[in-house]
UniProtKB/TrEMBL annotation:
It holds the Pfam family Aldedh. The lineage of its organism: Eukaryota, Metazoa, Chordata, Craniata, Vertebrata. This is Succinate-semialdehyde dehydrogenase. Homotetramer. Residues 64-522 form the Aldehyde dehydrogenase domain.
Length: 530
């Protein structure tokens, strides 16, 4: 158990020390700066969950396995060690692939209804254990508990959705030009799927992929992010309790150092038929090269750089609420977070003023287990340093800090509002993955679209307008895979998730998600008597 507060001194000379759970953001005229004192023990936070769900070994062929070494999992809010987890390497990854390949030949023989029932049981167990699963996310990822509970509901939703989609995999009977033939198109599972997931949604990114794969009749090997393996291992425990057969769902956690070698096995082994990855565009390109040698099916959900456009006709209050949801969820660490805020000239000042007040009223930094916390830490110090670098770059080029602007102890960074931002600044040219909200003023719709589309990635985009004609024009012309119109949150199991340009390949969720794990086989049935 551990607790802390941050000793701060304001730029106007007033000293204070507040518990992180109730730390308030200050206006730029009175920005807090670190005094340089160590963290002060103030309040205790403890990870208290069922022992069954706190797993630290790999999970292969229905068995919990050790590895020659372990690696630490840290609480990003404190830097304290939560657990030591088996550091699986290429040998363990190969064992998992072999187990999944063997299991595939009996799993695909299960009827769609049988697979559906097992996935539904898995869903039920996630729902039953939502509190403990949410605590794991909070302690290894840093999310506030409210958001962690939301992620578990989201993660369970994919299992529920794909338990239903399992029974709706339809082929086709195609009219033949020849009277003595019948043409049938069958859908069959691709085989073993390697699933490589990120730390920012450590449960939902697994169920979104594995739910579809298992529903289709595939088996999977999951490599979770090195920062958040505990959630993946808890999912494996619940999969076992649900009765999912040995070898169908496997998990090989590993450290950052072993990730390249484990990833190579999962992307090059000839027994693997499919690779599904969520993460950075740079890493996705490496995995694509690995998968190319054996011409594997791939799904890639890669980086985003989402624009958030507020037109003059927008309802400003709704736009502010949408901006708060879109930017500050998970402290800005989601691939669909808005990264560039474009506000039309006539309502620019009003939007900025109301947004600043909303940040003052709603955002509280702290440990995710504190019920007052709305903003947890970033995943590590490197992430906080990246935000700091972008803020410094923007300020050096003329941007004004209206709220926040400072790195705090460890991996915390103040939610930050910047005005007078221009497109030459680093924060408008690369994904931030942190609580930085830069606002660009624009004059015309054409100008906004040009700025929004001036990116090599295109995952999500958002805009607020009450002009129906404009809504259709902008929605069709934004070069992204997902558009939120007068809405800052758009992810749901029922809708497709994916991007264009260098934001990836394929779609997850929706009725299209299961198609990523299916091959179409053409069967020509000839020699029939007309």
């Amino acid at each position: 158990t551990y607790t802390y507060s941050i000793p701060l001194e304001t730029s106007c000379g007033q000293s204070y020390s507040r518990a992180m759970g109730s730390f308030c953001l200050l206006r730029s005229r009175c920005l807090p700066r670190q005094v340089g004192l160590p963290l002060v023990m103030h309040r205790q936070y403890s990870l208290d969950i069922s022992a069954q769900l706190l797993r630290t070994q790999g999970y292969v062929n229905g068995q919990w396995i050790n590895a020659p070494s372990t690696f630490p999992v840290l609480d990003p809010a404190t830097g304290e060690q939560i657990a030591k987890v088996a550091d699986c390497g290429p040998a363990e990854a190969k064992l998992a692939v072999d187990a999944a390949y063997k299991a595939f030949y009996f799993w695909k023989q299960h009827t769609a209804k049988e697979r559906s029932v097992l996935l539904r049981k898995w869903y039920d167990l996630l729902t039953l254990n939502k509190e403990d699963l949410a605590k794991l996310i909070t302690f290894e990822c840093g999310k506030p508990m409210k958001e962690s509970l939301g992620e578990i509901a989201y993660a369970a939703g994919f299992l529920e959705w794909f338990s239903e989609e399992a029974r709706r995999v339809y082929g086709d009977v195609v009219p033949s030009a020849a009277k003595d033939r019948k043409i049938l198109l069958l859908k069959q599972p691709v085989g073993v799927a390697s699933i490589i997931t990120p730390w920012n949604f450590p449960s939902a990114m697994i169920t979104r992929k594995a739910g579809a794969a298992l529903a289709a009749g595939c088996t999977v090997v999951v490599k979770p992010a090195e920062d958040t393996p505990l959630s993946a291992l808890a999912l494996a425990e619940l999969a076992s309790q649900a009765g999912i057969p040995a070898g169908v769902f496997n998990v090989v956690p590993c450290s950052r150092e072993k990730t390249p070698s484990v990833g190579t096995v999962l992307c090059t082994d000839p027994l693997v038929g499919k690779v599904s990855f969520t993460g950075s565009t740079a890493t996705g390109k490496i995995l694509l090269k690995h998968a190319a040698d054996t011409v594997k099916r791939v799904s890639m959900e890669l980086g985003g750089h989402a624009p958030f456009i507020v037109f003059d006709s927008a309802d400003v209050d709704k736009a502010v609420a949408g901006a708060m949801n879109s930017k500050f969820r998970n402290s800005g660490q989601t691939c669909v977070c808005s990264n560039r805020f474009l506000v039309q000239s006539r309502i620019h000042d009003r939007f900025i003023e109301k947004l600043g007040k909303a940040m003052d009223a709603e955002l509280r930094l702290g440990h995710g287990s504190d019920p007052n916390t709305t903003q947890g830490p970033l995943i590590n110090v490197r992430a906080s340093e990246k935000v700091e670098h972008q803020v410094m770059d923007a300020v050096s080029r003329g941007a004004k800090v209206l709220r926040g602007g400072k790195r705090l102890d460890g991996s915390f960074h103040q939610p930050t509002l910047l005005a007078d931002v221009t497109t030459d600044m680093l924060c408008t040219r690369e994904e931030t993955f942190g609580p930085l909200l830069p606002v660009i003023r624009f004059s015309t719709e054409a100008e906004a679209l040009a700025i929004a589309n001036a990116s090599h990635v295109g995952l999500a985009g958002y805009f607020f307008s009450q002009d129906v004609s404009q809504i259709w024009r902008v929605a069709e012309n934004l070069e992204v895979g997902m558009v939120g119109v007068n809405e800052g949150l758009l992810s749901t199991p029922e809708a497709s998730f994916g991007g264009v340009k260098q934001s990836g390949l394929g779609r997850e969720g929706s009725k299209y998600g299961i198609e990523e794990y299916l091959d179409v086989k053409y069967m020509c049935f000839g020699g029939l008597t007309p």
